Amino acid sequence: AQRVTQPEKLLSVFKGAPVELKCNYSYSGSPELFWYVQYSRQRLQLLLRHISRESIKGFTADLNKGETSFHLKKPFAQEEDSAMYYCALSGAGSYQLTFGKGTKLSVIP
Amino acid sequence: EAEVAQSPRYKITEKSQAVAFWCDPISGHATLYWYRQILGQGPELLVQFQDESVVDDSQLPKDRFSAERLKGVDSTLKIQPAELGDSAMYLCASSSSRAGGGKTQYFGPGTRLLVL
């Protein structure tokens, strides 16, 4: 069975400080990993996917197969980054997503 | 920009009543998903459609939940009878079947259900 674990329910950082949102997964094959974000009063939306290897809004995430992790990082947090972040996994050959429970990021001015 | 539409946005009902939610995916998206999100949890897949066919409904409580996508476009999720534990946000998402972009899911605003 596939599983996504986000160990932190809430993460508070000061503006300008580095951010790391942790995500660990359990999957026997080669997964595809995603980060979705939900800003206040907005719908859930894709932030980035590991196969794209791109930086979105200053965020990056690297898939570490050895540690089965896909942590989300940003060197300098901005107030507008405050949101709910969900890590999600899709198995090989599948379009389905398994989500973690989410981490609420609060950036303190 | 095209978006997934859902209605109603909020629904309050009494237990044992029937409720129905509607979803209109992005035009041209062949794959449609219904998720349930309990407060404090991530979305959990209930059912996946490919066009008008059910691909996976293994997590759908079929004794009370039903879903259909008759013409392969919009979809309805029904609960009958509703129970207190069904109170949650119900999310609809769609994705294209095109290679490379097919795994990105686009979400609707959700329907928040409260069962009294």
Top keywords for this entry?
heterodimer; A: mainly beta; three-stranded antiparallel sheet; 11 strands; globular; B: 116 residues; mainly beta; seven-stranded mixed sheet; four-stranded antiparallel sheet
Task: Set out the fold topology.
The complex is a heterodimer of chains A (109) and B (116).
Chain A: E1 3-5, E2 10-14, E3 19-21, E4 24-26, E5 32-38, E6 45-49, E7 60-61, E8 72-74, E9 83-90, E10 98-99, E11 103-108
Parallel strand pairs in A: 2-11
Antiparallel strand pairs in A: 1-4, 3-8, 5-6, 5-9, 7-8, 9-10, 9-11
Chain B: E1 5-7, E2 10-13, E3 19-24, E4 31-37, E5 44-50, E6 53-56, E7 65-68, E8 75-79, E9 88-95, E10 106-107, E11 111-115
Parallel strand pairs in B: 2-11
Antiparallel strand pairs in B: 1-3, 3-8, 4-5, 4-9, 5-6, 7-8, 9-10, 9-11
Give an overview of the whole structure:
The complex is a heterodimer of chains A (109) and B (116). Chain A has 109 residues and is mainly beta. Chain A has no helices and 11 strands. In chain A, the strands form 3 sheets. In chain A, strands 2, 5, 6, 9, 10 and 11 form a 6-stranded mixed beta sheet that branches. A 3-stranded antiparallel beta sheet of chain A has the order 3-8-7, with no helix packed on it. Chain A has a two-stranded antiparallel sheet with strand order 1-4. Chain A is globular. The N and C termini of chain A lie far apart (41 Å). In chain B, 0% of the residues lie in helices and 47% in strands. Chain B has strands at 5-7, 10-13, 19-24, 31-37, 44-50, 53-56, 65-68, 75-79, 88-95, 106-107, 111-115. Chain B is an all-beta fold. In chain B, the strands form 2 sheets. In chain B, strands 2, 4, 5, 6, 9, 10 and 11 form a 7-stranded mixed beta sheet that branches. Classes of the chains: A mainly beta (109), B mainly beta (116). At the A-B interface, strand 6, strand 9 and strand 10 of A face strand 5 and strand 10 of B.
